[in-house]
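We emphasize that the prediction below concerns an isolated chain of 248 residues; any contacts that depend on oligomerization or on bound cofactors are therefore not represented. The input was used exactly as deposited, without trimming of termini.
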Amino acid sequence: MNQILVTKKLYITPELKRKKKVYKVNFILSVFFLIVLISVYIYAAYDRDKAEAVSQDILANAELEQEDNTVADSDILIAVLNDTTDDGTETPVVVSNTNESTKTKQQSQSGYTYVTDGKITIPKINVEYPILDGESDSEAETEELLKMSPVKFHGPDINTVGNYCIVGHNYRNKRFFSKVPTLVNGDIIQITNFADNTTVEYAVYDKYTVDPTDVSCTSQNTDGRKEITLITCTDDSKQRVIVKAREV
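Result of the prediction step, given as a token string:
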């Protein structure tokens, strides 16, 4: 019996060529976008690490400056002089070189001027950051300073009667105010004033979310109490988490 071998021939049509080309283009684009996404993630992580380092440097410098001011204030020179008045009596005159603690103005890389108001410490979530206070309180200035540390958003002087409001970024990790939304009533927040080296403890009494345009949480109606308000974003950045605390 004769065997007839038939070889099937594959014909590459124009349509098949087109599909093959489209597949290659899509594959290349997918690889490109994957590389871009990985690069963005790595850069964002680097940026967050850099912000953390900058914030801790600011805190260390502020605490060192506060210690220097304390030493300077304790070095008092008093001279008692006899000053004769018109009626012949002598009046003692006391002269001292006591130095008052002052806040040193600093500048960000973008040229915004700020001072380090104090320090916020939240033991439960391992938070310890300086609180920056911008000179102009403009939105652009606040956004720039927020890259460095939590920022005073509104309110009176630190640790005085009223509602002292602090805003901080939520990086969805352990840095800055990322864990602030996990706080519950009774948790302790410590605020240190570098001007006089005093620390006031506040206990959380309320937590809720609001729209970004809602600033009612900054109200100064505290019935004569010292209060603080922490403000950060929700994990999806669509709303703001508000944590209220008052002096213990």
